[in-house]
Amino acid sequence: MTAVLERGLKPSWSWLGVDIYRIFHLAAVFGLTCVLLKVIQLYHQRQKLIKAFSRFPGHPTHWLYGHVHELLEGEVLNKVEQWSQKYPYAFPLWFGSFSAFLNITHPDYAKALFARGDPKDNVSYRHLVPWIGKGLLVLHGPKWYQHRKLLTPGFHYDVLKPYVLLTAESTKVMLDKWEQLIAQEKSVELFEHVSLMTLDSIMKCAFSYESNCQTDRENSYIRAVFDLSYLVHHRLRIFPYHNDLIYWLSPHGFQFKKACQPAHRHTDKVIRERKESLKDEREREKVQKKRHLDFLDILLHAKDENGAGLSDEDLRAEVNTFMFEGHDTTASGVSWLLYCMALYPEHQQKCREEIKEILGDRTTIQWDDLGKMTYSTMCIKESLRLYPPVPGVSRQLSKSITFHDGRTLPEGSLVAVSIYLIHRNPSMWKDPLVFDPWRFSPENVSDRHSHAFLPFSAGSR
């Protein structure tokens, strides 16, 4: 009877000769072995990082979170600025227990790093790839040089000169909108308006595209850029989100994919419509007569040494990169300049008087006027010093590096250059928090460290 019951309780697949309990046992052993191996790997990784950064003292870390929990509590830039005063030149920043950057805050260290050709890091930049693709911002090595060489003619002075009037037109649209808003006697968030103006400008100048984005009530591309910028920054600060599987299964990962869709639709539409317009013989003749092509036409007509053009993937990546980087960082720089001008009306008045004198009876800035705007240029540079549009860049060392003080970092280490902190380094700038445009007068610039002012970084970008 007992034997009959035992046979009845056996799983239905036992006739195949499979012992389900043995399978569970083996699976458990395999799983525990994998976990153990991962723990050992992470332990060795942490020990390697501790050894690499042993000569760089820094702020105390939490055993699990590193510095992340402190950075999440308040203003990140203010906090690291406090740490930079205690640990000059460079200090480690830990994102959890198994990932860390050396954060450079002194021009001597920045100069040593930028003199090399190290690739961008494989942590922060890779999070941008699903959005902008592998364009100039993300590429490195031979492909970066190939694309850079290809695009350089698009920034020739003769190409840039007519852009001044096009940008002036876009700015006038923005100012007309502001005049209407002023009548409502309410405060206005300028950054979105400035972003639309810079997007409108770059669409006209670099892509020969009339977007009318400033007069559209709701611009889905600008909204997508805001959302994607926030989500990339958020992902960097949440260590588990550095894992692709965890991130793409999370609510924020779904948000990111959703926000990419309008951004990609916008880019694809611009490329598609330009390709269509170039099918017209008159438009092709107009392009052929140009001494210098604009950015998108360079991409569409580009050929390598074998006569092959850019792939659709490369084309889309470069357009995505230039459209985002070209309008967003400019919008940030212009917005902070307006903030500084509002905060320091005495400097604003000097700029106004200078520009009025240059313009005379005219109402629009021309190319030749730009070189005469001495004081305004000094104010722009001082604003970029205090509020750089890109506060930092990062690299992964392709070989070990030795800094001027003898401290070294091994190959593979992640290094971040904090442009924000270099611009506020008290050993380079007297009263660094004071807005003083005269820092950029010719006599003051001549004695300054070559890497003390890096609003657009240095080296390969």
Automatic annotation (TrEMBL):
User: Where found?
Assistant: Endoplasmic reticulum membrane
Source organism, top-level taxon: Eukaryota
Q: Which family does it belong to?
A: Belongs to the cytochrome P450 family.
Organism of provenance: Platysternon megacephalum
Ranges annotated as spanning the membrane: 20-40
Q: Which GO terms describe its molecular function?
A: heme binding; iron ion binding; monooxygenase activity; oxidoreductase activity, acting on paired donors, with incorporation or reduction of molecular oxygen
Task: Determine if Oxidoreductase is one of this entry's keywords.
Answer: yes
Q: Does the keyword Endoplasmic reticulum apply?
A: yes
According to UniProt, the name of this protein is: Metal transporter CNNM4
Q: Which InterPro entries match?
A: Cyt_P450, Cyt_P450_E_grp-I, Cyt_P450_sf, Cytochrome_P450_Monoox
